[in-house]
Amino acid sequence: MTHSIQVKDLKLDFGSVSVLKNLNLDVAEGEFIVLLGPSGCGKSTLLNCLAGLLDITDGEIWIKNKNVTWAEPSDRGIGMVFQSYALYPQMTVRGNLSFGLKNAKVPKDEIDRRIARAAEILQIQPLLDRKPAALSGGQRQRVAIGRALVRDVDVFLFDEPLSNLDAKLRAELRVEIKRLHSRLNNTMIYVTHDQIEALTLADRIAIMRGGIIQQLAAPQEIYNRPVNLFVAGFIGSPAMNFIKGAVVDNGRSIKLGEAKLDLAGYDGGQPTDRPQAILGLRPEHLTIQDHAEPGHTIPAVVELDEPMGADSLVWLMVQGQQVSVRVPFEKRPTKGAQVHLKVDISKASIFDATTELRV
Q1: pTM here?
Q2: Which of 47, 68, 69 is CA-nearest to residue 157?
Q3: What sequence ranges are listed for the domain ABC transporter (predicted)?
Q4: Per-residue model confidence as pLDDT tens digits over 6-53
Q5: N or C: which end of the chain has fewer CB within 10 A?
Q6: Distance of alpha carbon 81 from its chain centroid, rounded?
Q7: How far apart are CA 308 and CA 306, in angstroms?
Q8: How far apart, in whole angstroms, are the C-alpha atoms of residue 284 and residue 264?
Q9: φ, ψ dihedrals at 269, nearest 5°
Q10: What angle do CA 237, 240, 241 make, to 5 degrees?
């Protein structure tokens, strides 16, 4: 596998505060990596280190087999798109796209060729002679992407480029960025706090917390097999349900209050007994039914439901804990009803309550 970017034992300290901690990351040629995590986890900081906007404390950064750890941003072969559009208001779109190229003494015919290509890819040809004030937010962000595109680089860095847009525009531009990557096949690293963006755009997602990558894997792997409790709770909307219990019977069952579930078919193999375990269940992997099936169901009481269009999110009480289940709108149960939740144990996750790691 050809690496486009390699981060080796990267550390960044701000005074006595350790922001990035011995971080390693290999990005393949043409790969789309999303850095995802809560505010303050270090995702934008890592992106700024890759761009050369922050000097690291220790470690190495390689881009296209070249050590760029101390190289200037302009010498790293990267194009960056920021959260704010940062367009020059007095210039037209054409002027904004050409400004960096003119400073780099690129010949005029080459500038025209690159602008025409970027405008065609981003569908902004009719906007080239307008100024930013005459553009919508989505159009301005397209121009900001175009400014990176005309640099004709191998690596694009996106720092929450859609966060200033409304939901409809975000959805539209998300499709545009995915189409852009499919057409160009350049390496892209994309920072976001929006898990929908991460799940739909990424070849692989790096979930970050406290300056450390918790899990780096394909979206479905992270969604279905989270490595720890933090990743499981962070990815997914609505969030994964967590029910406290204990693994018993030599790892063949998990006890949840008075109920006991058979663990045959659990995706992690047969676990060992644990007096404190946490069962993780996605809302779509539970089914509400009116009869018990020993070893496969948990008793529950319906609290309320949230209609969400085609389906509803039903909230129930299980052993004193709230659990959500996604059901078709027309099959919503009655509030206060005594029901049973059927568990698809093959889709479940079990975590050790002490280490918080997936069993």
Answers
A1: 0.91
A2: 47
A3: 5-235
A4: 999 999 999 999 999 999 999 999 999 999 999 999 999 999 999 999
A5: N
A6: 17
A7: 6
A8: 20
A9: 80, -175
A10: 135
